[in-house]
Design a protein that fits this description.
Layout: E1 4-7, E2 14-16, H1 30-40, H2 43-50, H3 55-65, H4 70-78, H5 80-83, E3 84-87, H6 89-101, E4 105-110, H7 117-123, E5 132-135, H8 136-139, H9 146-155, E6 163-167, H10 170-178, E7 182-185, H11 189-198
Parallel strand pairs: 1-4, 1-6, 4-5, 6-7
Antiparallel strand pairs: 2-3
Helix pairs in contact: 3-4, 6-11
Amino acid sequence: MINTIIFDLGGVLIDWNPDYVFTENYFDSQEQRTFFFQNVCTPDWNENQDAGYPIAKATEEKLIEFPEWENPIKDFYGRWVEMLGEQIQGTVDIFKQLKENKNLKFYALTNWSAETFPIAIDRFDFLQWFDGLVVSGEEKMRKPFPEFYKLLLNRYNVNPEETLFIDDNLRNVKAAEALGIKSIYFKEPLGLDLELKRIGIY
């Protein structure tokens, strides 16, 4: 019996995408764009800030390493607000329905810089619906490392066998499942709705 649902935020409830800034017109060629994201401001580098590394320091170090990429490096966090899209309405609607009609507890477990998360708190009212928010940048740890999941479980006295985890990153889903947490690999709201009905959440 599931009594707790843990949501990821970015990509599940909130749209975040560097493509909103780094469009095809930002770079001189697709090859430059590919190089930038594979070698300069990589996903791993961004996750380091999600785990609590200071954004200003990370940016300064990257500028020293790649001075020829000054503008896009500065824009990665300098224009971060522009990368933050709208709430993913279909998922928010599902969350609202569950919140109103089911006797469940809801938590967020998110890889998100502590420096930028207040922007999301101010923008998205539904973040107040959670019974608890665990933010990687505040805790100095992140998914998919098991201690981050365990932090939430222990802090809120959550039983993994009675918990459902929803994330759009398969790596994070597998990490949760390794801890005995039933999980859904999120792709889009309709699929989530169908899967929740299939497993009997509603």
